[in-house]
Amino acid sequence: MKTKGVFLPGDKTAHVKEWDISGPKNDEILVKIKAAALCASDLSIYNGKPLIEGYPSGTFITGHEPCGVVEEIGPSVQHLKKGDRVAIIAFIGCGFCNYCLGGEPNLCESVKVLGFNCHGGDSEYLIIPERSCLILPEEIDYVVGAISTDAIGNLYSTMKEMNVSSDDVVAITGMGPMGLSGVLVAAGLGATVIAIDPVESRLNIAKDLGAQYIINPDNEDAVAFIKNLTKSGADKAVECSASEIGINTVLNATKPHGIVSQIGETGDRTISIKPSSQLIWKKLSYIGSWYFTLNEWINITNFIITKIGNDKAKKLVSHIYPLEEKSVSEAFKLFSEHKTLKVVFTP
Question: Which residues, 6+ apart, have CB-to-CB distance to 253 below 8 Å?
Fold first, then answer.
């Protein structure tokens, strides 16, 4: 069968073309995509330097944040049926290793990543193994479903790993979609949230999503502000800017015995920090966070339903486009110029 899907040739242009896909085999399902969100990592394909080497731009349909409805199932599918609403995770693991069995297919040695080394979800239809699908509750609409995995799900997982509660002051650097998701989740958990970003418009969105304090580091010393507010520093911090300034800010602003979670990906850039004064002498815990474990999904969706709601979650989305040539071209251009928040296609 054929499907319309996004084609990124790697020359900073974006197109829609017809792709050939097969029907579902064995444990695969055919999903009719209802919404699919863009991610900053998609820009590596757009710019001609895919994060996963060996697969040139344009090899696969892009997109690793889709959701939709089951259209057809393969003969070995055990749990899903036609008509089920599903969110699709970004990864296809082997299904048998310790990481896959523990709900972390992103750590599987043979993992495939949607849009990078297999077809992704910026398309009308997607063939995907059943194990990469999660039931999307009726209370969550499809646009929110598309941002509930990579964005909200990731930040929910790291907040829970840090045991964030109403007793905590949480500092978050970088008010892009990930940082704003962090504000949304931390505020939903009752924490006092400090948002840090040099772009005033994004700070205003952070305040609307629940940040009690906003800091523009171009105008104010963020570390001094946080220490003056808390006396000893933030209890927890989440770094989403992937900048050297942002990373050093959270390490310096977090109190002894505090926890810092690194979300922002620095790629192959070298970042300078001072382990002795920033980590060792403060007995600080510095953790990496990448996605959520699949057994957290029911808690993530319950949190979205009870603590956030569709309307507030949609404030993370600035642009919604149909899957058409002109719209897709504009979407990637604006996204690459950092003129959007989350961008969602609705095929």
Answer: 171, 222, 223, 226, 227, 233, 234, 237
265 and 312 inside one domain? no
Q: 207 and 268: one domain?
A: yes
Domain count, the chain: 2
Q: Are residues 178 and 264 in the same domain?
A: yes
Summarize pLDDT for 82-116 with one digit per residue, the tens: 999 999 999 999 999 999 999 999 999 999 999 99
342 SS3 class: strand
Q: Which structural domain range is residue 44 located in?
A: 2-150+293-345
Structure tokens at 344: 């969602």
Q: Contact 222/172 with Cβ under 8 angstroms?
A: no
Token pair for 330: 């504009």
CB atoms under 10 Å from CB of 208, counted, come to 12
CB 178 within 8 A of CB 151: yes
> Which tens digit of pLDDT belongs to each residue from 275-290?
999 999 999 999 999 9
The answer on 37 and 129 residing in a single domain is yes
